[in-house]
Amino acid sequence: MLDLEDIFGHGGPLERALPDFKVRREQLLMAERVAGALAARESLVVEAVTGTGKTFAYLVPALLCGARVLISTGTRTLQDQLFSKDLPLVAAALGRPARVALLKGRANYLCRYRLARADEGGEQLTLEESGAARPRATNAMLARIRRWARTTQRGDLAEVRGLSDSHPVWPQITATRESCLGVRCPEISRCHVVLARREALEADIVIVNHHLLLADLALKEDGFGDLLGSADAVILDEAHQIPDLATQFFGAHVSSRQVESLLKDLRLELTARAGGASPGQGAREAAAAVRAAEDALNQVRAASARASGRFAWTPGDFALSAAVQGLMQSLEDVPAALAGADAQSALAQLAARAADLAASLGRIAAVDELEGARTLEVTARGFTLSLMPFDISNRFRALVQGRRGAWIFTSATLSLGEEFGHFTGRLGLAEAATLRIDSPFDHERQSLLYLPAGLPEPAAASYVAAVIDTAVPLIEAAGGGAFVLFTSHRALAQGAALLRARWADAAPYRLFVQGEAPRERLLQEFRADGNGVLLGTASFWEGVDVKGEALRLVIIEKLPFASPDDPLVRARIEHLTASGGNAFRDYQLPEAALALKQGAGRLIRSEDDYGVVVICDPRMVGRGYGRVFLAALPPMTVTQDPAEARRFLKRHAPRAAPGPRAASAR
After folding, report:
1. Which pTM value belongs to this model?
2. Would you tell me the crossing angle of helices 54-64 and 87-94 to the nearest 10 degrees?
């Protein structure tokens, strides 16, 4: 039987089966350590930078270990890639077939019952979407979904061409935990969610995403039961996302949309039960409870009627506190009004939903300011009340320790320098083994870190203009092929306007601006162009892979410190300060350094990549903490000489000079 060294070595099954496979010592090192952790059922934290080949480094041990393994990824896109491409390739190369299941949250699967209701006239559709008023495009999409529903095996809505999860029809044909009828559903025998869960329970390897995993860990919801109950090991890829996501799941959230949905379902059910007959006392009490809850909801709307955005909800906000208390009480009254309903009826389910919402509101309203931050988020569609706990380490550690199995956390950005303490501390994993895999790339030869001198402080009104002034000569030297990454949408809009004004109608490079087209389309067209200039914010700082000459310059507007105006950030700073900690050292600085590490990591993605990373922020050299940021970055050659940066870019720019291009991706 082949050992790992044979598998990952020259002439091994991976090299024979995969034309692009490269033998890397770093990949073998990670695979051996992951295999050891799986065998010993221990916790392991691995930072494997770009180029390690970390996916294969954990897939091979997972296939060989003979255990039941749960693999969790950061996005549904990565889930699909693992399921459709990576796992089949590795399994075939090793000659080790495995039963593999792909499991997503229930909102990704068609609900046949709700599709039928939409066909019958759209009882669950909003007023403006119902009946004759429903837009023609929505009707066309429903027709397409109906045709697809007759033949689909999995019911995964990702199979439907042209349907995005933001499409208005999506929530009308999927069920939530609250709206699912469960065993009472007439379509239960053909339920895609039930089928997916059954396949997952029978599989050797189950591929999930972090949201579904954390829902299972924190809430035991989504109708999937205990995903982890029979798993021998859990592997979490893109694990740097886990602390923030776990904080969300261990918190509490109640939105106006949830309450509206509950009240709408209650009205529909009560109307259906009335059937034209005179309502009895119980029905009258239930209807009165619904009206009271509607009134209470409107009171919260009135108390939260302020400018759009996210705000801190402080104990001194008496109007909002009183309105939330009233809504909580009215929701608590709903189960009492429905007490006579059969335990297996839809009304009993609706009563339980009301009780859950009331309990969440009570938790949010009662939290101590030392335990978590309370926020109110107001949008055009309504409001959301949230509680975000400050410290989840004890709870997460208890969940990990309560399941005897291996836990593998891996990502390209988990450490600062040689230290993993910031990541492991947030999750209570202080006793976990750690491993940092050095990059197989020669960053000193392949890249240059340029720290321009003379820029104003980032708070200055002229700062973004100075960044664009710095960027343009570098973009010209590189012949395009640039990312310009901003830390806010305001700076992005200002930068795009300045760049367009400078180039006017004779833009030498095609300009791609976040928000003017879907993210994946922007990336696809940027890669195809080869000399484009892409301007983006947070979503382009990570999870973006552009190999080759198409990307040879990454310009970072300023250090990505989280805005202290954000109520959650401000509350965490105040909490750490009140607890005797140093909020800047222990929270703001490490979070920003890890984010910078992600952004700079967009540049060198293979042995053949070359380019320059530019960090415009003068604090990199003007403040003592700049050393922390430098330590977080790959070992690039550092310069403050603009001429040296331009020479490096010209030396590695494509030979063919680009011609004039359109000024926008639209």
Report:
1. 0.87
2. 50
